[in-house]
Design a protein that fits this description.
- This protein is mainly α.
- It has one domain.
- The protein is built from four helices and no strands.
- Helix 1 crosses helix 2 and helix 2 packs across helix 4.
- The radius of gyration is 14 Å and the shape is elongated.
Length: about 80
Amino acid sequence: MIIEQEEKFNHVLSKIEGTPNEQNFFNKFLELYPEAWKQHKITFSKFNRSKQFGKTIPLPKPEISLRKEIRVWLKKQ
C-alpha cells in the first residue's frame, strides 16, 4: 500500500545505524516518511469505512501491516 516502497525501504536501511531490526526500522520509517505513513493510515480508514454493515473483511491495522511489510522486506535482504 506504500507508494515506491522499495526505494523508501532502501533509504531507511541506509539511515539506520547498527543492525536493523523491525522496531528500529519502523521508527526510522515514521521519522523519515511521515507523509507516506499518514497516507497509509488514510487508506486504511477509507477502506474500513467503505465496508457494508454486517460484512467483515479481515484487514490488519496500519501498524501491523507496515511491520509485516518491513519484516518480509528485511528477510529478503
